[in-house]
Amino acid sequence: MFARGLKRKYGDQEEGVEGFGTVPSYCLQRQSLLDMSLVKLQLCHMLVEPNLCRSVLIANTVRQIQEEMSRDGVWHGMAPQNVEQRAPIDRLVSTEILCRTARGTDGEHPTPELEDDPLQSSASELPIVSSAQGQRNPQSSLWEMDNPQENRGSFQKSLDQIFETLENKSPSSVEELFSDVDSSYYDLDTVLTGMMSGTKPSLCNGLESFAAAPPPPSSTCKSDLAELDHVVEILVET
Amino acid sequence: MKCFSRYLPYIFRPPNTILSSSCHTEADIISTVEFNHTGELLATGDKGGRVVIFQREQEVLLEEQTPAVVLGSVLRVLKSHLPSFQSKNQVHRRGEYNVYSTFQSHEPEFDYLKSLEIEEKINKIRWLPQQNAAYFLLSTNDKTVKLWKVSERDKRPEGYNLKDEEGRLRDPATITTLRVPVLRPMDLMVEATPRRVFANAHTYHINSISVNSDYETYMSADDLRINLWNFEITNQSFNIVDIKPANMEELTEVITAAEFHPHHCNTFVYSSSKGTIRLCDMRASALCDRHTKFFEEPEDPSNRSFFSEIISSISDVKFSHSGRYIMTRDYLTVKVWDLNMENRPIETYQVHDYLRSKLCSLYENDCIFDKFECVWNGSDSVIMTGSYNNFFRMFDRNTKRDVTLEASRENSKPRAILKPRKVCVGGKRRKDEISVDSLDFSKKILHTAWHPSENIIAVAATNNLYIFQDKVN
């Protein structure tokens, strides 16, 4: 694991993917932390009600990471500024607008690990949901509590319904809000494994697969899937 | 080696008593420890839903040394040699704690509506002040609070007129005389009976209970709500705090602990996962969503990281006995706050700051979510809290000295003084020090208790309970 806690480093853009023995770049560490957090939220004991405090803390951490990633994604390449003093709401709004116009252009928001990504949907787009972008990562809707005006897609509406249902049934767990995402999250395994083996972390490939049809889950996920199916079944039956 | 007697007013002797289960299952993990108001009784709750109460022996002057006593099959009591001698022939036997009563407080349940199990683990035990010959305590798991009465029976009625010795009814035709049952002494029997069950009031997991100073009410707090109960009424409770957002998506903060003021029955505090403490006055309104005081320390920007919020989450809050201060425990520190000053604590003590550089690993293995408790001593001059590797820490508020002690059998020889421990952060490790990387994070001391008036402490190390007494003479 990392030798030290994560600290913000401005202008510290180490190039490319490191070989063994070097300290991972800040962005890599941050991404790894994000993935770890998402996995933690997913892997809960389905038998006993999960710990709400832990879930909330992990969810807040994920939100923080994504906010920072969106800020850095936008401001990358520009002079380091005291971005954290700006209100997150303003930041997200302007980022979203920027992302809309910047979509499809190359080299707009390069980060070291995304150099070869053809789609260029960088990490900065992750928290910014536009309903027009089709089937998005539904988890991201959680992070847009600051931007309610953007989440009016039909997909979002169905999510709201699910959340309300969840609230009536088992409101105590934030991660149950993610249970609807089910199998697409198991791509985190491939993303994480991809990272650990030192290959180029296909960050956007992982993200794309959230939008694309989920690949068949690995055998290790089968039992988790069964449990999730069970939970979803219960939810649907209400 | 330095003699710490000069720094701390007491030196804790190694275990007079270590009590542990003979079988080490997960159900035996101690989940709460609490002395009663006189210190005569010590209650522990475990993950299997059991409560074990220990009672302190009366202090006795003995002629000669008595051998160690081994108790029954469930608990094995290891006693060291008797404490310090006063003279050659007479031994002053200090009161030691023996098992007084054991009962099953909570059973595992299944919530059919949510298809989820409800753990029987005892989260908290709180004693009521004694008002008659019986003892009363509250014990709670995640969902249900129970009031238990623990009473002694040492007499038995004998000589019933209408029943024979086995309790069967006698044939009325054979009864020719009248006699009244007489109470005869019997072996002491301690029985625990559930007197009240306070159920179905909490959607989320109960983390705290606190008896009010009016001795008529108590509160139970879960992640999002706090309820006020009357001891006599089990089918109703008042909701006094509700922080559940209308939209659960917006949930970012939960309640982590709550406690009543020790003297003012209208005042209580609750802590949150964002490191804040709110003091509420129940006279202000029925629903205390608007706090009277708000305690928060501004964040240190130089120490900011992704884990800042997690490590600021308060795991325990305790009023001082005086009622003037509150103590909070977050992951790395213990803080003492003056009720009259909201913008920052008056004292901050580092429990294990060497973990600050390991937060990522501790996040990965979930240790960062461990909830440590903290306690005051009887005079509010010393505070104590647990750490990893079976270490626990004491801080003297007056002298500003602190000490790290270890609760383990190997390092605690009978009649020897507990040796202070030290964690070596970097560089050269001295002989008795332990390096940070050698710490055992599975051995955590989350629950400790301090006798209300004497220097006796109870330390729960996984499934072992250690009771330390300070050296006398």
From TrEMBL, chain A:
Region ranges (Disordered): 102-153
Residue stretches of biased makeup (Polar residues): 119-153
Basic and acidic residues biased stretches: 103-112
Pfam families assigned to the protein according to its UniProt record, in alphabetical order: SERTA
GO biological process: cell division
InterPro entries: E2F-SERTA_domain_protein (IPR052262), SERTA_dom (IPR009263)
Assigned keywords, A-Z: Cell cycle, Cell division
Domain spans labelled SERTA: 26-73
Designated name of the protein: Cell division cycle-associated protein 4
Source organism (scientific name): Microtus ochrogaster
Gene name in the database record: Cdca4
TrEMBL record, chain B:
Alphabetized UniProt keyword annotations: Repeat, WD repeat
Protein name according to UniProt: Serine/threonine-protein phosphatase 2A 55 kDa regulatory subunit B
UniProt cross-references to InterPro entries, sorted A to Z: PP2A_PR55, PP2A_PR55_CS, WD40/YVTN_repeat-like_dom_sf, WD40_repeat_dom_sf, WD40_rpt
Database matches in Pfam families: WD40
Designated gene of the protein: Ppp2r2b
UniProt record similarity statement: Belongs to the phosphatase 2A regulatory subunit B family.
Gene3D superfamilies reported for this sequence: YVTN repeat-like/Quinoprotein amine dehydrogenase
KW Repeat (keyword) present: yes
